[in-house]
Design a protein that fits this description.
This protein starts with 13 loop residues before the first strand and ends with a helix. Helix 7 links the parallel strand 8 and strand 9. The chain is built from 21 helices and nine strands. By secondary structure, it is mainly alpha-helical. The chain is elongated and about 105 Å long. The protein folds into four domains: 149 residues, 3-Layer(aba) Sandwich (Rossmann fold); 155 residues, 3-Layer(aba) Sandwich (Rossmann fold), CATH 3.40.50; 67 residues, no CATH class; 94 residues, Arc Repressor Mutant, subunit A, CATH 1.10.10. The structure holds one RNA strand.
Length: 507
RNA sequence: GGCCCCGUCGUCUAGCGGUCUAGGACGUCACCUUCUCAAGGUGAAGAUCGCGGGUUCGAAACCCGCCGGGGUCACCA
């Protein structure tokens, strides 16, 4: 294949995904990770996972593990991370506090940042006043011009302080975004942002800049919601005298009502989709499709490996896509159909095992599937084979296959009768069973011919007889082709069910 | 409200000044296949290219204004 990569980048790309451990793994994190992973590996570079745990209030204990697990599940394993290590560690921001402190103090020493002693109460009141006057809420720079003596005195007395960066007046700050070009900001509307909190933790703004620089990130990609704070980051790079990585702001994923994808209005947890039975190939494909279409094959169905053959940031669409579950479902069905039965079975087992332990709403279903597989793997596989191409999401399996596993079917009289008289149906069912039992060669052809002949003999519509049989054997309106279903069930069980139906009609 | 981003069928998009009476995919509907449901195949409906001005022989594409949607304005990320 022709190499269409920018040769200057080969072996040099370093990307990172930097989630905050604040709960369930977010689909947005998977989305970001996928793009970073693909781009880095396309260029034989490095994909890094950094944990941004600088907000102690929102910190959730297990959620870091869950991030690892999520990336592992999707096969988006980082080359450097808190777990696998790397030369640029630590990869957890809470373990890099001294570094941030050092750089924050350096800025203070250079007059590019300053200590601020304002209480949160004062800040709150200030903002309220500003809003009452219809002015944009911004820090009033109250502490910007304190004398060195006063700062030293208050610090020495142990007074709580934060460090804020100084934003220059009347300056045009240009943010270079790979997708949008130059985005210009007026420094007068940029706030003197806190970069180091009073608890010694950095805010996001300091931490990303310091870490991305120290970790030698070449392409800093993040959600579009960061675009408006990008000028602060540009300024910080300038203050430190560091070269900026390339910036890419990806469009925000949306709910059907176009608002930012949120827990309230949709499902943002990767685990939700996993539990529903979306498979990773489909999920990855879908996430990519949100912003990218394979430019060479023009295909909508592709793997992340295929994506690596041609993906470039510039090809990304910039409009906020709506997270369209219907399309995801279609994709999932496509991917399921593409799989071999054996591979599907592996996915189903993984799903059932995982959901039966950590599932939130499909636990019972998962256990049921597990028990079916355990009881008779061969039987399960045969039944599954007939449903393979009908399957959209894995969690549908219990419902789709349950009729194979019921001892006593609950019949629907209407379905069984197909608008005929009960005694006629009972009689013809008996006769069909009779003839089928006597069949010497049991094949699709002989089986079908027998049924059709029988229908003719009783002046029944073929269709009616088939439906009536279907109802007798499965108690369903829709199933895979009858002959195949009977084959899975076995003649004995199938005929027993016909008898059951006849008895049902006779009572 | 200030600032920033975005704006082609319901949804995702192709389109980078003439090939567009705007192409594809999902969804919807119809038909074919058929023992039902799927899958598959064929086809249909669905977009005054957000609106209004320019520029141009010619604009979905370029410029300006407006409108609409979204994001952001924290010691959250």
């Amino acid at each position: 294949m022709k190499d269409n990569r920018d040769s200057k980048l080969i072996g040099k790309v370093r990307t990172r995904v930097a989630p905050s451990p604040t709960g369930d793994p977010h689909v947005g994190t998977a989305f970001q990770a996928l793009l970073d992973f693909v781009f880095a590996h396309r260029y034989e570079g490095t994909f890094i996972l950094r944990i941004e745990d600088t907000d102690r209030k929102r910190f959730v204990d297990e959620s870091e593990d869950v991030i690892f697990e999520a990336l592992e599940w999707l096969n988006l394993n980082p080359d450097e991370s808190p777990k696998v290590g790397g030369e640029y560690g630590p990869y957890r921001q809470s373990e890099r506090l001294n570094t941030y402190k050092k750089y924050a103090k350096q800025l203070v020493a250079e007059g590019k940042a300053y200590y601020c002693f304002c209480s949160s109460e004062r800040l709150e009141k200030m903002r309220q006043d500003q809003q009452a006057q219809k002015k944009p809420p911004m820090y009033d720079r109250n502490c910007r011009n304190l004398t060195q003596e006063e700062v030293d005195r208050r610090l020495a007395s142990g007074e709580k302080a934060v460090i804020r960066m100084k934003i220059p007046d009347n300056k045009e700050i240009i943010v270079h975004d790979l997708l949008r070009g130059e985005v210009k900001f007026d420094s007068n509307i940029v706030d003197d942002q806190v970069i180091l909190k009073s608890d010694g933790y950095p805010t996001y703004h300091l931490a990303v800049v310091v870490d991305d620089h120290l970790m030698e990130i070449t392409h800093m990609k993040r959600g579009e919601e960061w675009l408006s704070s990008a000028p602060k980051h540009v300024l910080l790079y300038e203050y430190f005298g560091w070269q900026m990585p390339l910036m890419i702001h990806t469009p925000t994923l949306r709910n059907p009502d176009r608002s930012k994808l949120s827990k309230r209005k949709g499902n943002t947890s990767l685990w939700y989709y996993r539990e529903q039975g979306y498979i990773k190939e489909a999920l990855l494909n879908f996430l990519a499709l949100l912003v990218w279409k394979h430019p060479i094959t023009n295909n909508e169905i592709f793997t992340k490996e295929e994506m690596m053959e041609s993906f470039e940031w510039e090809q990304m669409n910039i409009t906020g896509p709506i997270f369209d579950i219907v399309k995801l479902q279609w994709l999932n069905g496509m991917w399921i159909r593409k799989k071999s039965l054996e591979d599907l079975l592996i996915d189903i087992k993984d799903w059932a095992t995982w959901v039966s332990v950590v599932g939130k709403e499909k636990q019972e279903e998962a256990k049921k599937v597990l028990s079916w597989i355990e009881k008779d793997p061969d039987f399960f596989q045969k039944a599954l084979a007939l449903t393979h191409e009908r399957l959209k999401i894995i969690s549908e399996i219990p419902e789709l296959l349950s009729f194979y596993y019921v001892d006593k079917l609950t019949y629907d009289r209407e379905d069984l009768l197909q608008k005929h008289e009960a005694q006629d149906i009972a009689r013809i069912l008996g006769e069909v069973k009779n003839r089928l039992e006597k069949l010497e060669s049991w094949t699709q052809e002989t089986w079908e011919a027998t049924i059709r002949k029988c229908a003719d003999d009783f002046s029944f519509k073929h269709k009616d007889l088939f439906m009536c049989m279907r109802s007798a054997i499965t108690a369903r309106k829709a199933t895979p082709p009858l002959f195949e279903v009977m084959n899975v069930l076995g003649k004995e069980e199938s005929f027993k069910r016909v008898d059951d139906a006849i008895n049902f009609l006779n009572n």
